[in-house]
Hints:
This protein is α+β, with helices and mostly antiparallel strands.
Amino acid sequence: MKIVKYAAAGSLAAAALLPTGAALAAWEINMPVGVTELSRDIHGLHMMIFWICVLIAIAVFGMMIYSIVKFRHSQGAVPATFDHSTKAEIVWTIIPVAILVGMAIPAAATLVKIEDTRDSTLTIKVTGYQWKWHYDYLDQKVSFFSTLSRDSDAARQTGSGIDPNSVENYLLSVDKPLVVPVGAKVRVLLTSNDVIHAWWVPAFGMKKDAIPGFVNELWFRADEPGTYRGQCAELCGRDHAFMPVVVEVKPQAEYDSWLAEQQGGAAPAAAQAQTVENAAPATAAAAE
């Protein structure tokens, strides 16, 4: 009777320690399904290999448990007298090889697809700096720096007195996000100006290192408009935690308007710089 009471008390204590439904929703264990075809392919590959491993575990441990129970000493089991079985060795060699080949074929196809940047609609050069990103839309005459948003930067300062919980998307927002059109195949060229960084957006299923003196590349095609957040995933110095990545995926018409606005803003700035350059020799001549 006491054993039953102790068991019931233990069960209640364990139930009290279990997380609630909301906590379980926030505590996501499995790999998330993103908004790109690559992320879905990677997730599908992950789940396929996971269930293959589950089946192997069930078969192996099931056979072990069966052998332990069926051929235990108390049942009068007699040890085998043979040294080895050629037939058994052939079987347990062929089966693992077949399983590995079955996993390798879809894995190789996915890896080839990840590296295939052909037929890209848009190419963007991304350069990592301590501690910001620079985006350069090649052939579009648009480039800008993307840094941690001012409200997050103010809240992170020691003694600021600002509650980080009061800041929306604390440490995951920037002043100027990367903007791309929905459904477009975007090729990203990655490099760094100082140390190794890593450009990572979980919803895209992609992460690549930005290495000084080297150009890495990745691609993604976002199928759903929205704002997707990531971070630098390589320890790059004391402000590593304050180097977020934010990508806004817009419908094509909205992206075209944004691009025209950015190009329109860049033209006057370039013209102004040219005017200053032209005026400098004239000023020098007048001074003489």
